[in-house]
Design a protein that fits this description.
This protein has 122 residues and is an all-alpha fold. The chain has one domain. The chain is built from eight helices and no strands.
Length: 122
């Protein structure tokens, strides 16, 4: 209900859905699984909202990746993969510029490819 009642989130979901259906489905799946994990870990309802919104918007930056790269069936070139790796930063740009979304949610979007050992991207 919280996600559905946030107009900014709905617009972002619509943008993802109209740009790439696979990313839209993946975002919903990620949200559901992230919320299940958070609930079983004892996360309170306030933090659960940020987990859910961050998870559902984690790939919004992919709407700035050329669709030919995003849906390429063959192996990506080095340059294409470098472009894909920018999607967390593109997501941050979109959310900071256009929406009133908390810094905690933006951090989820920004860091969703980071690893515990500090590797990953951006």
């Amino acid at each position: 209900d919280y996600i559905l009642n946030m107009g900014d989130v709905n617009k972002s979901l619509y943008d993802i859905k109209t740009y790439d259906n696979y990313t839209s489905i993946h975002s919903l799946d990620t949200c559901v699984m992230s919320c299940f994990l958070a609930i079983t870990s004892g996360v309170d309802s306030y933090d659960l909202k940020d987990v859910g919104v961050g998870a559902i918007l984690h790939d919004v930056g992919k709407t700035k990746i050329p669709i030919e790269i995003l849906n390429k069936k063959t192996r990506l070139t080095y340059e294409e993969f470098e472009e894909i790796k920018k999607h967390p930063l593109y997501g941050v740009e979109l959310l900071k510029k256009n929406f009133m979304i908390s810094s905690r949610i933006i951090k989820v979007v920004e860091q969703h490819h980071e690893r515990v050992d500090g590797r990953g991207y951006p």
